[in-house]
Write a structure and sequence with these properties.
The chain is an alpha+beta fold and about 180 residues long. It has a single domain (about 5-175), classed as Aminopeptidase. The protein has helices spanning about 5, 15-35, 45-55, 55-60, 110-125, 140-145, and strands at about 10, 65-70, 80-85, 95-100, 130-135, 150-160, 165-175. The protein has a 7-stranded mixed β-sheet with strand order 1-2-3-4-5-7-6, sandwiched between helices. A hairpin with an 8-residue loop joins strand 3 (about 80-85) and strand 4. Helix 2 (about 15-35) packs across helix 3.
């Protein structure tokens, strides 16, 4: 797959998310097996991961969650999600989640491109504040710093890694200029 193909992610509808769930599941399992602390234990199966992705379809249909997939739907190389805050006093913010790049596709700029895409989509929807968290010391943390995110702080023992060991998480924020 060419870099150009990787860098043209598709915004998934609820129906496309359902169809892409098996491929997204493989991507999620690859991340977890690679040690990414993305909310799942090392024993995560592809079937469990596919069910989790399918469970996101209702939020996508409601418009509260945006999910992009880069690469072919049967084997996406990357994904990112943007959860739009639903409270009236939070209509200006959103949260980046599940920024995943398959181990075979790393080092080609896909993670940065997906992050930039989610940031742009947030700005287009009038969101001026983005939040995210990641395992302290991870390669994802370095990506966010390079992309201009500001460290809010670290919380010790915030989440368990895939092996079940509690690890600190660093929280970040980024101010955007709304384009909506």
């Amino acid at each position: 797959m060419s870099t150009a193909e990787l860098l043209t992610p598709e915004l998934l509808t609820a129906e496309r998310l359902q169809a892409a769930a098996p491929g997204l599941a493989e991507l999620l399992v690859d991340a977890v097996r690679g040690g990414a602390s993305v909310g799942f234990p090392a024993r995560l199966t592809t079937a469990e991961a596919a069910d989790w992705w399918r469970s996101r379809a209702a939020a996508v249909a409601a418009g509260s969650l945006l999910v992009w997939a880069a690469g072919p739907s049967d084997r996406p190389a990357g994904t990112v999600s943007l959860a739009l805050a639903q409270y009236p006093n939070g209509a200006h913010r959103a949260e980046i989640g599940k920024l995943l790049v398959h181990s075979d596709a790393r080092g080609r700029g896909l993670g940065g491109a997906l992050l930039a895409l989610a940031e742009q989509a947030a700005a287009e929807r009038g969101r001026t504040l983005l939040l995210l968290d990641t395992e302290t010391g991870s390669s994802a943390e370095r990506l966010y710093r390079r992309a201009g995110w500001t460290t809010l702080g670290a919380v010790p023992d915030y989440a368990a890694d895939p092996a079940g060991t509690l690890r600190p998480s660093t929280f970040f924020y980024k101010h955007l200029v709304a384009t909506a």
